[in-house]
Write a structure and sequence with these properties.
Layout (H helix, E strand, L loop, with lengths): L3 E13 L3 E19 L4 H4 L6 E5 L17 H12 L9 E6 L10 H16 L6 H11 L4 H8 L2 E6 L4 H7 L3 H4 L21 E6 L6 E7 L5 H6 L7 H17 L7 H7 L6 H4 L6 H7 L8 E6 L6 E5 L3 H13 L5 E6 L7 E6 L2
Parallel strand pairs: 3-4
Antiparallel strand pairs: 1-2, 1-11, 2-4, 2-5, 5-6, 7-9, 7-10, 8-9
Bound molecules: adenosine-5'-triphosphate and L-homoserine.
C-alpha cells in the first residue's frame, strides 16, 4: 500500500482582546505544523509506542525539550487518540510517524494548547478518514479545551466571536465528564478498552468578524510560562453589574471598531479596557499594571490598543506603525521588573487550520 503523507497547519491565537473574556479570539500567522506519514513498511519502527505512533519535534520547536513523546501522554496525539477511539479505532495505523514543528511558545497566552488540541483533532480525523466537518471537529476540541475563544480562532481562522450553546442536562453531563475520562490516560502500554464519551453536537457557535488588515499584532512575550489553569484560578466567581456592563459595552464597540478604515485609536484604545480578568491577573505578571497604563496612543503613534494576550503573560499591542518602538518600550518596562521578553510582529491568519495532502507513488 502506498504511504500517505500530509501536513496539518494550525495557527496560534490571541484570546480576549481585552473585554472579550472567553468570547473573542484572533488567529495569528504563526503555525504549528504536523508532518505526518503513514507507511505500513515502517511498522517495525513505530511498534515501540503502544499506539503505533513515532512522535518527534524539530530541535528548534517550542517545547521540544519538555513535551512528552509517548502518544498517550502528548497533548496532540492523546487528542487524536480520543477522536479515533470515539470511532472505534483503538490505535494509530502501524507505521505512523508525526514530526512536529512548533514556533508557538508554550504557556504564554498565544494559544499553544488550543493549537495542539485543534491539530490533534484534525490528526485523528485525517488518520481515521472520518470526514468530520470543521464544525463537528470543534465539538471534539471543546470537550478538551472547554472555552471556545482560542479553539474557534485556531480552527476557523481570522477574528472570531464564539459562545457555547445552552445544553440539555444530558448533554451537560456528557460535556462535563472529567477530562481524564475523555483523553486516554498514559497507560504503561495497556489499553483499558474504555470508549470515551462522544461530544454533543454543535456545542460552539461562532461568527467571523472583518479585521482591517492595516492592523498588525505585536506580541511581547515574557520568558516565563503561566499556565491557563493558574491564570483562571485567580479570577472571582462573581462580578458586579457595573463591571459586567463595562465589558459588554466595550465588547460591542470593539468588534466593529477593528473593521473600520482608517482604524480610530480613540475608539479602539478605550474599547480594549477590561474589568473581568486583567485586574486580577496583575498579581501573576510583574509589570503588567505599569505596561497597560503607560503605553498609550498618546505616547506611541500608531498604537491602537493594548491588552493581555489570552491568559498571559504575553502582551498584545494592536498597531498600524512604529511596531519596534512599541515593542521595545514594553520590553524595557518588563526588564525593570526583572522579566526578559522577546517580541513578534504577526498578521492575522485568515484561513484557519488546513491539511495539505500528497500521495507518494
Ligand atoms: N505543541 C505542543 N505539543 C504538546 N503539548 C503542547 C503543545 N502546545 C501546548 N502544549 C501543552 O499545553 C500547555 C500550555 O497550555 P496553556 O493553556 O497553559 O497555555 P497556552 O495555550 O499557551 O496559553 P493561552 O491558552 O492563554 O493562549 C503546555 O504546557 C503543554 O502541556
Ligand atoms: N479566555 C481564556 C483564554 C486562555 O485560554 C482565558 O483568558 O483564560
Amino acid at each position: 500500500m502506498a504511504p500517505r503523507n500530509f501536513v496539518i497547519k494550525v495557527p496560534a491565537s490571541s484570546a480576549n482582546i481585552g473585554p472579550g473574556y472567553d468570547v473573542l479570539g484572533v488567529a495569528l500567522a504563526l503555525y504549528l505544523e504536523l508532518h505526518v506519514t503513514v507507511d505500513p513498511a515502517l511498522g517495525g519502527e513505530t511498534n515501540s509506542d503502544p499506539n503505533n505512533c513515532r512522535l518527534s519535534y524539530s530541535a528548534d520547536s517550542e517545547g521540544a525539550a519538555t513535551v512528552p513523546l509517548a502518544s498517550d501522554a502528548n497533548l496532540i496525539t492523546r487528542t487524536a487518540l480520543y477522536v479515533l477511539r470515539c470511532s472505534g479505532v483503538r490505535t494509530f495505523p502501524s507505521g505512523t510517524t508525526v514530526h512536529v514543528v512548533n514556533p508557538i511558545p508554550l504557556g504564554r497566552g498565544l494559544g499553544s494548547s488550543g493549537a495542539a488540541v485543534v491539530a490533534g483533532v484534525m490528526l485523528g480525523n485525517e488518520i481515521g478518514q472520518l470526514g468530520l466537518s470543521k464544525q463537528r471537529m470543534l465539538d471534539f476540541c471543546l470537550m478538551i479545551e472547554r472555552h471556545p475563544d482560542n479553539i474557534t480562532a485556531a480552527m476557523m481562522g481570522s477574528f472570531c466571536g464564539s459562545f457555547l450553546r445552552d445544553l440539555t442536562p444530558q448533554e451537560v453531563e456528557r460535556r462535563e465528564i472529567p477530562l481524564a475520562e475523555v483523553l486516554p490516560e498514559p497507560s504503561g502500554g495497556e489499553d483499558t478498552g474504555l470508549v470515551p464519551p462522544l461530544p454533543p453536537t454543535d456545542i460552539g457557535r461562532h461568527v467571523k468578524y472583518n479585521w482591517n488588515p492595516a492592523i498588525k499584532c505585536v506580541a511581547i512575550i515574557p520568558e516565563f510560562e503561566l499556565s491557563t489553569a493558574d491564570s483562571r484560578g485567580v479570577l472571582p466567581k462573581a462580578y458586579t453589574t457595573q463591571d459586567l456592563v463595562f465589558n459588554l459595552q466595550r465588547l460591542a464597540v470593539l468588534t466593529a471598531a477593528l473593521t473600520m478604515d482608517p482604524p480610530q485609536a480613540e475608539l479602539i484604545y478605550p474599547a480594549m479596557q477590561d474589568r473581568v480578568h486583567q485586574p486580577y491577573r496583575k498579581i501573576l505578571v510583574p509589570g503588567l499594571a505599569d505596561v497597560l497604563q503607560s503605553v498609550t496612543p498618546r505616547t506611541h503613534a500608531g498604537l491602537l490598543g493594548i491588552c493581555l494576550s489570552g491568559a498571559g503573560p504575553t502582551i498584545l499591542a494592536l498597531a498600524t506603525e512604529n511596531f519596534e518602538d512599541i515593542a521595545l518600550e514594553i520590553i524595557n518596562r518588563f526588564a525593570k521588573q526583572g522579566v526578559q521578553c522577546t517580541w513578534k510582529l504577526l498578521d492575522v491568519a485568515q484561513g484557519g487550520s488546513i491539511v495539505e495532502t500528497s500521495i507518494q507513488e
